[in-house]
Automatic annotation (TrEMBL):
Topological type in the membrane: Multi-pass membrane protein
Listed name of the protein: Rhomboid family intramembrane serine protease
Keyword annotations from UniProtKB, A to Z: Hydrolase, Membrane, Protease, Transmembrane, Transmembrane helix
One BP annotation, GO: proteolysis
SUPFAM superfamilies the UniProt entry points to: Rhomboid-like (SSF144091)
Listed Pfam families: Rhomboid (PF01694)
Organism of origin: Streptomyces venezuelae
Coiled-coil regions listed: none
Cross-referenced Gene3D superfamilies: Rhomboid-like
GO CC annotation: membrane
Record flagged with keyword Membrane: yes
Record domain Peptidase S54 rhomboid: where: 50-182
Compartment(s): Membrane
C-alpha cells in the first residue's frame, strides 16, 4: 500500500468517525439527551459496558466541537501507521481510559466524550517515533507536542470540576504506554511516519 493510499484511508476513516460523533449528538439532542446515559458512571458495575460507548457520546454541541478537530488531526496522523495498528491503539486507549475513569472518577459522576481518546492519541504520537527511532516519527511527535502540548497539559489537572481530568490523564498515559507495548512495525510496513 502506498503512502497516498494510507493517507486517503486515514482521511476517510477520521472524517467518518467525526461525522458519527456529530450524528450521535444530533440523535442525543433530538431524544432529549437520552444518549447521555451511555456515559461512564463511576464504580457502577452495571455501567461497565459504557466504557465502550462513552467515547462516542458528548454532552452538547460545544463538547463534540471541542473534541472534533484534535480527534480528526491526531487520529489522521495515527492512522497513517496502518489501519489495524490504529484500531488496536484506539481500542487499548478506549478500554484503559474507560476503566480508569470508572475506577477513579468522583462517585456518581457521568463521564463521556472523545477527549480521553484524544489525549491518548497525543501520548501515542509523541512517544511512538522515539520508541521506534524513526526520524519522521520523531518529527511528527515533536510537531504534535508543539501544536497541542499546552492544551493537553492544561487538561490533565483538576482545575475544572466539570471536566474529567482523570479521563484526560489516564488517556494520555494509556496512549504513551501503548506506544511502548506495540511491536515495532516492520520497515516496509511502517507507514508514513512509523
Amino acid at each position: 500500500m502506498t503512502d497516498s493510499d494510507r493517507a486517503r484511508i486515514a482521511g476517510f476513516l477520521m472524517l467518518g468517525w467525526v461525522a458519527l460523533l456529530w450524528l450521535l449528538e444530533a440523535v442525543d439532542t433530538a431524544t432529549g439527551h437520552a444518549l447521555d446515559a451511555y456515559g461512564i458512571t463511576a464504580r457502577d458495575t452495571g455501567d461497565l459496558p459504557s466504557v465502550l460507548t462513552a467515547p462516542f457520546i458528548h454532552f452538547g454541541w460545544d463538547h463534540v466541537a471541542a473534541n472534533s478537530i484534535p480527534l480528526l488531526a491526531l487520529g489522521f496522523l495515527a492512522a497513517l501507521g496502518g489501519l489495524r495498528r490504529f484500531l488496536l491503539v484506539c481500542a487499548v486507549i478506549i478500554v484503559a481510559d474507560g476503566l480508569g475513569v470508572w475506577l477513579f472518577s468522583p462517585s456518581d459522576s457521568n463521564t463521556a466524550g472523545a477527549s480521553g481518546l484524544v489525549f491518548g492519541l497525543f501520548g501515542y504520537l509523541v512517544v511512538r517515533g522515539f520508541v521506534e527511532r524513526r526520524p519522521t516519527g520523531i518529527i511528527v511527535g515533536l510537531l504534535v507536542a508543539a501544536i497541542w502540548g499546552s492544551a493537553i497539559l492544561s487538561g490533565i489537572g483538576p482545575s475544572d470540576s466539570s471536566v474529567s481530568w482523570q479521563g484526560h490523564l489516564i488517556g494520555l498515559l494509556a496512549g504513551a504506554a501503548v506506544a511502548f507495548l506495540l511491536p515495532k512495525a516492520p520497515p516496509g510496513r511502517a507507514g508514513v511516519y512509523g
